[in-house]
Design brief:
15 strands, repressor, alpha/beta, FAD, 14 helices, binds 2-aminohexanedioic acid, seven-stranded mixed sheet, five-stranded parallel sheet, single chain
Length: about 500
């Protein structure tokens, strides 16, 4: 088995003009090709970034707020055009951005291509969406009045993004705020500043004013906290851990002034429920992709496989066989399926968790031998656990927990719900009515039936969770931009002398 790129998903032609995945013509099945990817790419210096001094933020905020007052008056179509030009440029610069993702975030070539494509999709999708949602809506009213519902920008947003999708999630957050006419103070993850810097430089080159979109580098505890604390922040959008989302929420609640909205997309303890009718080969493929691809460093990744005891042995054997074929190593090599985890801290966390499981749980996939370089490689692992409730912590790595179940699948779903997270869920069954019923019963944002549970496609599979997994709205979906806007209803007495009906003509 060799991991394929994301399954090819045709997108609405009106939105993107072309099919998405695989459109770059990258053939990842070429396993004999061992030439380092970076040799084949233009040599690109990684941008050097400087940390922001929190003392400089009040002035930076003022510049942003002033510039944002102009930006919100720019017609939405022109803002959308700036995003479309940026999307075209990003597409044209795919090799450079892939190189940055491989160098800085240790993405495999396949993951890097998919991520650049996702960022392009976010830019184009929010351009289209902004034009759609920001069009004034005329509402039927009583005779003698006109009623118009308008959406306007809220002001300056703070965007705090993670290292695991340092381009796609960063670009998605920023594009949503900009398309709707807001200013942005963005803080990328400390581990991945250069990719964000390159993206911001690109947006500036293609029509987004530099005061409207500012990048501020530094730690969450210092620069991130200082950004959130600026008086006048209109909203915060954050992707990362549940714990940090709550810190931000408390900080916002403690501020003087208006209630500030928080859009948070956080963690998950994602499960896949496999019943006795499921197709084992399909399950094994979906599990290997969902649990081990991207070294398990996706919030959508599979953590808990709940497999019916009747087919469990066969399924486990297939997963074990497939996992052993994965090439774990240097992400710059085209043949690599699984690169290193992001840093020493992530590596140590996974090691600690695996050491505990090795003592307490049945080891279903002993570690394969790994190359000495690069640092922080983690072999795919699989352990048998005894209860859903044993899953108390999201482990951000290629570690799969397996539970054998019998009885009613509804009971398993209830136990998964009781964990309190609610991001992704897989269901593998050949009984359609069961898939429907279990999907409805599950408190999760994204349900995937008879396929892998990662790689939500922008505009097609709106992504985001419930409960401990986030606040919504779903990124890449038709409701996302609404949260970045203020709503205003304008009611005009059209019978008044002077013909007030013309007042709204210019809107
Ligand atoms: C994340 O991992 O932080 O569906 C969220 C997916 C991605 C997940 C991004 N969109 O796999």
């Amino acid at each position: 088995l060799h991991l394929a790129p994301e399954p090819s998903q045709p997108l609405p032609v009106a939105l993107f003009g072309a099919q998405r995945a695989n459109s770059m013509g990258v053939d990842l099945s070429v396993t004999s090709q061992r030439q380092p990817l970076l040799d084949a790419l233009p040599t690109t210096p990684v941008p050097v970034v400087t940390e922001t001094d929190p003392a400089a933020l009040p002035a930076a905020f003022e510049r942003c707020a002033t510039a944002a007052r102009v930006w919100r008056e720019v017609p939405v179509g022109e803002r959308a055009q700036a995003l479309r030009r940026s999307a075209d440029a990003l597409e044209a610069e795919l090799p450079r951005f892939c190189a940055l993702l491989v160098q800085e975030a240790f993405k495999t070539w396949g993951d890097a291509v998919a991520e650049v494509r996702e960022a392009v999709d976010f830019l184009r999708y929010y351009a289209v969406e902004a034009e759609r949602v920001m069009a004034p809506i005329e509402l039927p009213g009583p005779t003698g009045e006109s009623n118009t519902l308008l959406l306007t920008a809220r002001g300056v947003w703070v965007c705090i993004s993670p290292w695991n999708f340092p381009l796609a999630i960063f670009a998605g957050q920023v594009a949503a705020a900009l398309a709707t006419g807001n200013g942005v103070l963005a803080k990328p993850a400390e581990q991945t500043p250069a990719v964000a810097q390159a993206m911001v430089d690109l947006l500036h080159r293609h029509g987004v004013p530099s005061d409207v979109l500012q990048l501020h580098h530094g730690a969450g505890e210092t620069v991130g906290a200082a950004l959130v604390a600026q008086p006048g922040v209109a909203g915060v959008v954050f992707t990362g851990s549940t714990q940090v989302a709550k810190i931000i929420q408390r900080a916002l609640a403690a501020k003087d002034g208006p209630i500030v909205p928080l859009i948070a997309e956080t963690g998950g303890i994602n499960a896949m429920l496999v019943d006795s009718t499921a197709l084992p080969e399909q399950v094994a493929d979906a599990v290997v992709q969902s649990a081990f691809r991207s070294a398990g460093q996706r919030c959508s990744a599979l953590r808990l496989l709940c497999v019916h005891e009747v087919i469990a042995d066969g399924v486990i054997e297939m997963i074990r066989g497939a996992a052993r074929e994965l090439v774990v190593g240097d992400p710059a090599q085209l043949a690599t399926d699984v690169g290193p985890v992001i840093d020493r801290e992530a590596f140590d966390n996974i090691e600690r968790h695996v050491a505990r499981l090795a003592r307490e749980a049945h080891d279903l996939l002993p570690p394969q031998a790994l190359p000495a370089e690069p640092a922080h490689l983690v072999p795919p692992r699989m352990f048998e656990v005894k209860a859903v409730a044993d899953m108390t912590q999201e482990i951000f790595g290629p570690v799969l927990h397996v539970l054998r179940w019998r009885g009613e699948p509804e009971a398993v779903i209830d136990q998964i719900n009781a964990l309190g997270y609610g991001l992704t869920l897989g269901i593998q069954t050949r009984i359609d009515s069961r898939a429907q019923a279990l999907a409805t019963r599950a408190h999760v944002g994204n349900v995937y039936v008879n396929r892998n549970i990662i790689g939500a496609v922008v505009g097609v599979q709106p992504f985001g969770g419930e409960g401990l997994s986030g606040t919504g709205p779903k990124a890449g979906g038709p409701h996302y931009l609404l949260r970045f806007c203020a709503e205003q209803t304008v009611t005009v007495n059209t019978t008044a002398a002077g013909g007030n009906a013309t007042l709204l003509a210019g809107l």
